Amino acid sequence: MHWQVYLSGEIHTDWRQQIISGASALPVTFLSAVTNHEASDSAGDLLGEESDNFWRDHKSSKVNGIRIRTMIDKCDVAVIRFGDKYKQWNAAFDAGYCAAIGKPYITLHDEGIVHALKEVDGAAMAWAKSPQQVVEILNYVISQE
Questions:
Q1: Distance (Å, rounded) from C-alpha 15 to C-alpha 86?
Q2: pTM for the complete prediction?
Q3: Whether residue 98 has pLDDT greater than 80
Q4: Nearest to 92 by CA among 111, 66, 112, 118
Q5: 85: Cβ–Cβ under 8 A, 6 or more apart, which residues?
Q6: Which residues lie closer than 8 Å to 89 by C-beta, 6 or more apart?
Q7: What totals of helices (H) and strands (E) does the chain contain, helices first?
Q8: How far is CA 133 from CA 33, 36, 89, 97, 105, in A?
Q9: Which of 55, 72, 119, 125 counts the most CB atoms within 10 A of its CB?
Q10: Which whole-number Å values give the CA distances from 38 to 6, 21, 94, in the listed order?
């Protein structure tokens, strides 16, 4: 079986690349939202410029949602990364969407935000503290016969 893994969340570190590199020998394709912050923020501009930031963000979130929802729906498992510097409301939304549709997901974050993510972690199939742990989980679930 060839797996599809959706990588969601924090965009300020190289955690995605660490997982992709670590899992390079596995039969897996990685999917992701647009990780270019400026491109993501301006996605709604394709529908016409807005002078009100609320409506600009609203349109951009809907355009980005086409990609995000489609990729979550087609993935086998999602990895949802929460960093400690920024609040990733979008990642929390992705986790909630996964939970609502019964899509298995792994959370990835350090111990400092365990309390804040207790509900998100409670619905996750695993909590990893490092990209390497995610790779080990993927290796286990994909490679076992």
A1: 15
A2: 0.93
A3: yes
A4: 118
A5: 12
A6: none
A7: 6, 5
A8: 22, 25, 23, 23, 14
A9: 72
A10: 21, 25, 20
Ranges of each domain in the chain: 3-35+72-143
Which amino acid would we find at residue 127?
W
Helix (H) or strand (E) run with residue 65 in it: helix 53-74
CA distance 35 to 123: 25
Q: Are 76 and 137 in contact (CB under 8 A)?
A: no
CATH number corresponding to 3-35+72-143: 3.40.50.450
What's the pLDDT score for residue 145? Answer: 66
Q: Which amino acid is at 116?
A: A
Residue 41, exposed/middle/buried by CB under 10 A (0-12, 13-18, 19+)?
A: middle
SS3 109: coil
Q: What angle, rounded to 10 degrees, do the helices at 53-74 and 89-101 form?
A: 40
Q: Which helix (H) or strand (E) holds 3?
A: strand 3-9
What confidence tens digit (pLDDT) does each residue in 103-141 have?
A: 999 999 999 999 999 999 999 999 999 999 999 999 999
CA dihedral 7, 32, 70, 114 (to 10 degrees): 30
Query: How many Cβ atoms from other residues are within 10 Å of residue 141's Cβ?
Result: 16
pLDDT score of 101: 98
